[in-house]
């Protein structure tokens, strides 16, 4: 198998997947080019049916692409990838939490002493210690998702492919997981995750892939994307009364609230003084990731 450049974990080139359904071609992936950098958290964002899961399955060799290839770095291969697919069951309901972790650890040839230590670490990290001897079938959906994550982390893979990893988790559990993912990335692990929770992207995403109809619309750092879609600084100002201007470029967003381009701020401020209007609050307005996502997906 070919290897990537030193700073890349995975390089995807010209990847396409075409299905034939009822004698019609369905393009799931359309000449996808993606480079995943080592030690980076990349968020793959797209609407349902965009092809995100198909892409992940192609990386895992669970789906054979029609054309193109997936190339791993020198120290990585399929055997060094951990994955959670949305809706896929990768836990045994009739085993306890501990037995699930132990079984999958032994299945991956982890030595018993190392495995026992890792199990305790993972149980503690995911706040599952008190459920250690509970049958998985008796757990809530969120708790079962934690167990699935634990099975992945037991292997200590270098690349993590996570399809909606926080699905079913409560706020506290989600935050614990996100902190751990950031820690793993700092340790050099490569993480690709899909999510519909844009606050997660805001919190931990380093690179963002905007994906639609099997195509990459944009792949850049979160910082660059935010800069690109916020080229002009706009200040949101709340006043104690309405202000009236002639031929001014101010948007009245709500009663007593105005959106003012920064280059027009001085003129706006002078108008306030002339009208004896007081500023109650003033904040910079930027498009967030959710707003950018919706704009790109139109």
Automatic annotation (TrEMBL):
PROSITE patterns, per database record: ABC_TRANSPORTER_2 (PS50893)
Enumerate the GO terms in the molecular function aspect: ATP binding; ATP hydrolysis activity
* Database matches in InterPro entries: AAA+_ATPase, ABC_transporter-like_ATP-bd, ABC_transporter_ATP-binding, P-loop_NTPase
Top-rank lineage group of the source organism: Bacteria
Keywords in alphabetical order: ATP-binding, Nucleotide-binding, Transport
Pfam families assigned to the protein according to its UniProt record, in alphabetical order = ABC_tran (PF00005)
Enumerate the spans annotated as ABC transporter domain: 10-238
What family is this? Belongs to the ABC transporter superfamily.
Cited PANTHER family: ABC TRANSPORTER ATP-BINDING PROTEIN, ABC TRANSPORTER ATP-BINDING PROTEIN NATA
- Report the protein name in the record: ABC transporter ATP-binding protein
């Amino acid at each position: 198998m070919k290897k990537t450049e030193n700073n890349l974990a995975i390089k995807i080139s010209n990847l396409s997947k075409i299905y034939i359904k009822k004698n019609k071609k369905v393009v799931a992936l359309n000449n996808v080019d993606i480079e995943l950098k080592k030690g980076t958290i990349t968020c793959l964002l797209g609407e349902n049916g965009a092809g995100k899961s198909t892409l992940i399955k192609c990386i895992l060799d669970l789906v054979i692409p029609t054309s193109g290839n997936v190339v791993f770095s020198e120290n990585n291969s399929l055997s060094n990838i951990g994955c959670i697919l949305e809706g896929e069951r990768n836990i045994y309901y009739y085993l306890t939490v501990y037995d699930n972790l132990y079984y999958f650890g032994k299945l991956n040839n982890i030595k018993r002493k190392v495995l026992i230590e890792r199990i305790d670490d993972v149980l503690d990290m995911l706040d599952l210690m008190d459920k250690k001897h509970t049958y998985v079938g008796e757990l809530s959906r969120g708790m079962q998702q934690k167990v699935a994550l634990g099975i992945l982390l037991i292997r200590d893979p270098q690349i993590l492919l996570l399809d909606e990893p926080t699905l079913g988790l409560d706020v506290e559990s989600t935050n614990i997981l996100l902190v751990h993912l950031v820690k793993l990335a700092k340790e050099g692990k490569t993480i690709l995750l899909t999510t519909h929770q844009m606050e997660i992207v805001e919190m931990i995403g380093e690179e963002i892939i905007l994906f639609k109809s099997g195509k990459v619309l944009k792949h850049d750092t979160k910082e660059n994307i935010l800069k690109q879609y916020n080229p002009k600084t706009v200040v949101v100002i709340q006043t104690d009364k309405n202000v009236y201007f002639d031929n001014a470029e101010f948007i009245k967003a709500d009663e007593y609230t105005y959106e003012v381009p920064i280059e027009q701020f001085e003129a706006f401020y002078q108008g306030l003084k002339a009208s004896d209007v007081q500023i109650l609050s003033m904040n910079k307005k930027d498009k967030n990731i959710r707003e950018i996502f919706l704009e790109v997906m139109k």
